Amino acid sequence: MVYYEYTLGRAQDAPETAFEIATAELAELGFDSFSEEAGELHAYIPEPEYVRLRETIAAWLDEAGYPHTIREIADDTNWNSVWESNFSSVEVDGRCRVRASFHEAAPDFEHEIVITPKMSFGTGHHAT
């Protein structure tokens, strides 16, 4: 998916809460991710929203006085596969293993619980 990254600097004489305000305003305009680092706010918007709203966004940024740059980010990374590759099973006392459905079975364990991690159900990593 293609995203557009807006990098905002702090407007001159801006309050300390300037990036918090910008984040709230940009979220209302369709931006879906943000990060703040090195005195800059990075805001990301999917291409369809960017195309539809770029003039509105430009007008808001100009009116608010934020210096900014824009760059296209084309990313075809399968982030779910990346997450799965870094996800580990949980072993309890060497007898029980809680694993995701995408892990290989481990017959050495007396009990094996298979959980398919989703937002609505846990992964076995939390104490509950």
Q: Helix fraction? A: 25-40%
Distance between the termini: 35 Å
Global structural class: alpha+beta
Cα-based radius of gyration, to the nearest Å: 21 Å
The overall strand count is: 7
Overall shape: it is elongated
Report the order of strands and helices: EHEEHEHEEE
Average pLDDT works out at 85
Largest sheet: 4 strands, antiparallel
Please count the helical segments. 3
Seen as an oligomer or otherwise, the chain set is single chain
- Give the strand order of the largest sheet, numbering strands 1, 2, ... along the chain: 2-3-1-4
Low-pLDDT residue spans: none
Q: Proportion of β residues? A: 25-35%
Describe this structure in words.
The structure is a single chain. With about 130 residues, the chain is of the alpha+beta class. It has helices at about 20-30, 45-65, 80-85; strands at about 1-10, 35, 40-45, 70-75, 90, 95-100, 110-115. The strands form two sheets. The chain has a four-stranded antiparallel sheet with strand order 2-3-1-4. Strands 5-6-7 form a three-stranded mixed sheet, with no helix packed on it. The longest helix has 18 residues, at about 45-65. The chain starts with a strand and ends in a 13-residue tail after the last strand. The mean pLDDT is about 85.
